[in-house]
Design brief:
Layout: H1 2-8, E1 14-16, H2 20-31, E2 38-41, H3 47-63, E3 72-77, H4 80-84, H5 86-90, E4 98-101, H6 104-110, H7 122-135, E5 138-141, H8 149-162, E6 166-167, H9 173-182, H10 186-204, E7 210-212, E8 215-217, H11 219-231
Length: about 230
């Protein structure tokens, strides 16, 4: 019933299981009966964790008569070892559609002092985004675990400015805040389309760059505009 409600709302069905070395295999056996779209696995420190999950998911797809390969994977990176192994983790299975970086466990593994401004995680989050971009998977930013709406909004803006298009949440109230900030607004989409139209017109006349509202627009700006419109 829960899966059906999410799908009726137009949402992907993503479930998190415990580490497979513990009781995660029992979790996986239970959740796979409902054919989730995505399975998230915590504490992934290397590609071997993904390989094991891939094999288990394949087995359950066969056991439950599901189309083989339909279930996507979302490894959770929660340690320095996981972060430096991210390219291998993301490439360990064609099922990997995204990776997620943790906040509390990541900070603990680094021995960092946790604060509401999340300054201690700035490097880890920035590197995580670069690694995910290189691996061509979606980068899911860490959750803001404090019950402070203004803090969640500020952290979401930080993430958007740097290129994140997805973010995790712990307090349910933060989901709406994150969605409002990371979802392109109608105004932003309209501006992106203006940029695209001006650039296309300039290129048709042999120009390598055009001016829009006093700013020079070149190919990288154009491609950013295209990506934003595609997400709308």
């Amino acid at each position: 019933e829960t899966y059906a409600a999410w799908r009726e709302a137009g949402a992907a069905v993503a479930v998190r299981v415990n580490p497979l070395a513990g009781d995660g295999m029992d979790d996986l056996a239970a959740v796979m009966k409902g054919a989730p779209d995505i399975v998230a696995l915590p504490k992934v420190h290397g590609p071997e964790f993904v390989v094991e999950l891939d094999k288990a998911v394949t087995r359950f797809e066969r056991d439950y008569g599901l189309p083989e390969g339909r279930t996507r994977l979302l490894p959770n990176v929660e340690s320095a070892k996981g972060l430096v192994n991210l390219l291998a983790i993301a490439g360990a299975s064609p099922r990997v559609v995204a990776c997620l970086i943790a906040s509390e466990d990541q900070a603990a593994d680094l021995g960092a002092e946790r604060g509401m401004d999340s300054a201690e995680l700035e490097y880890a989050r920035a590197r995580f985004l670069v690694e995910c971009r290189a691996a061509e998977v979606v980068a899911v930013d860490c959750p803001f675990t404090f019950r402070d709406d203004d803090g969640a909004a500020a952290e979401s803006l930080w993430a958007r400015r740097r290129g994140f298009t997805a973010k995790s949440a712990v307090p349910p109230a933060h989901a709406r805040i994150i969605n409002d900030i990371l979802t392109p607004s109608e105004e932003a989409v309209a501006q992106a389309r203006r940029v695209m139209a001006h650039f296309d017109a300039g290129r048709a006349q042999g120009e390598a760059r055009v001016e829009v509202d006093g700013a020079l627009v070149e190919l990288p700006n154009y491609l950013n505009a295209v990506r934003l419109v595609e997400r709308f």
